[in-house]
Amino acid sequence: METLAAALATRAGGPLRGRVMPPGDKSISHRALILGLLCVGETKIVGLLEGDDVLHTAVACAALGAKVQRRGEGRWSVRGCGIGSLLAPRAPLDFGNSGTGMRLMMGVVGSHAITATFDGDASLRKRPMQRILDPLGSMGAEVLAQTPGGRCPILLKGTSEPTPIVFSPPVASAQIKSAVLLAGLNSPGRTTVIEAEATRDHTEKMLKYFGASIETGPFAKHGQKITLEGRPDLRPARVIVPSDPSSAAFPLVAATIVPRSDIVIEGMMMNPLRTGLLATLLEMGADIDILDRRAEGGEEVADLRVRAAALKGVDVPAARAPSMIDEYPILAVAAAFASGEMRMRGLAELRVKESDRLRAVADGLREAGAASQIIGDDLIVEGRAGDVLGGGMAATHLDHRIAMSFLCLGLASRRPMAIDDSRMIATSFPEFQALMEQLGARFQ
Ligand code: S3P
Predict the structure, then answer these.
(1) What pLDDT, on the 0 to 100 scale, is given for residue 2?
(2) Choosing a second label site near 144 at 20 to 30 A (CA), which of 165, 259, 392, 410?
């Protein structure tokens, strides 16, 4: 049953101060559960993001035969059934708001002799799935029913004899790459994905960590080529989930735009395929010290000391988009507080995220008294040199990152800023309000 929308607002108060640790990475959390399902034996996960998106994936893993147990805060155990031995789920698999959960699991089901219905909320029902169904079709999976245009609910019949393929995703997408690689796990032979633009590599790294034979090399100027040997003997492992840079992005930008702020964000993952926002904020003049770089759970992490700074607008190249694809809404908020014009190029993919983020950002900025334009696939924001009016209400369209971005804007605007619905924040960052309040943020 749908719950009622919950409006929320923020207003400027004093500076943000203190130390915080953002929640576990969403991408790694989904993958840890799914690889746990695909191993025989117990996978232990520490620091799992307990957001709604990931919890839907946990339930789907259980429906496919895994024994999934919560052992304590962020501590989970998955006893999987192994590649080739999944159970047919008895009910539709509901992924809520999560494109990642749905697309990765389509890859898993597509190469097993089972049939499953994939469904989600009103936002997920609008998102394109054909990009996943096409390669899975080449491998032998069949779509038995779908909503026109490759939208869910989708009834997918997997195959027991998947054909290994060589596939070049039509758009830069770690979800497409991961779906094909996960399907390739049960294919006899080598599955290859060639990416023109390298995207986050968590699936590849984790597959290697669980014992798969997988090779990655550079391809053309910005791309990579990944080859996986099918039917590996995956070994259950212990996964430590680092802090999510896409969630850290909110306190990071808030501390930059709220005058006199000085905070430390602990344990943020520094995987170079995820740090585009950091690079862009530094170019804009942000005051960020990267402290204590260290390895944790197979990823580099660091603490970030962030102090308020005057920003200037810059031109962000399209090639940087994959490394900060989820961070454009909050970057656009930073741009509104910068001086001069900021152009963010090559953002076509933002139109098919949890909402049409290009539209939602431009509309929300207008509500806050800041001008922006969408020209082709570029977003151009007119900076207001620290003086953003606020006072409006941003429509969030079931999109957690739109919600959190405009709440951050309200912490530094002249008047309070409201959002129409805060429920979706729980999909990726359930403790967002508490963590921001711990830093001194004012909600109303
Ligand atoms: C994700 C990949 C990205 C990103 C999403 C998480 C992943 O999506 O936007 O939030 O975990 O693989 P695309 O692959 O569609 O770009």
Answers:
(1) 58
(2) 165
- Would the pLDDT of 1 be above 50? no
Q: Which CATH architecture has domain 2-24+242-443?
A: Alpha-beta prism (3.65)
Q: Can you say whether the dihedral through the CA atoms of 138, 143, 149, 150 is positive or negative?
A: negative
CA distance 296 to 298: 6
**Ligand 1 pocket residue status of 350, Cβ below 6 Å:** no
Q: What is the rounded CA–CA span in Å between residue 312 and residue 326?
A: 21
Assess whether the region 2-24+242-443 and the region 26-231 belong to the same CATH fold: yes
Q: Does domain 26-231 correspond to CATH entry 3.40.50.300?
A: no
For ligand 1, say whether the CB of 100 is within 6 Å of any of its atoms: yes
pLDDT in tens, 412-431: 999 999 999 999 999 999 99
Angle (nearest 5°) at CA 30 between 59 and 119: 50
- The model carries a pTM of 0.98
Domain boundaries, the chain: 2-24+242-443, 26-231
Three-state SS letters, 150-186: CEEEEEEECCCCCCCCEECCCCCCHHHHHHHHHHHCC
Which of 56, 103, 173, 324 to mutate for ligand 1's pocket (most ligand atoms within 8 Å of CB)? 173
Q: Specify whether 326 is catalytic.
A: yes
Residue 175 CA to ligand 1 center (angstroms) comes to 5
Q: Which of 94, 201, 303, 326 is catalytic?
A: 326
Which ligand 1 atom lies nearest to the CA of residue 171?
16
Q: How far is the CA of 341 from the centre of ligand 1 (A)?
A: 28
In this structure, what DSSP letter does residue 387 have? Answer: -
Contact 284, 313 (CB under 8 A): yes
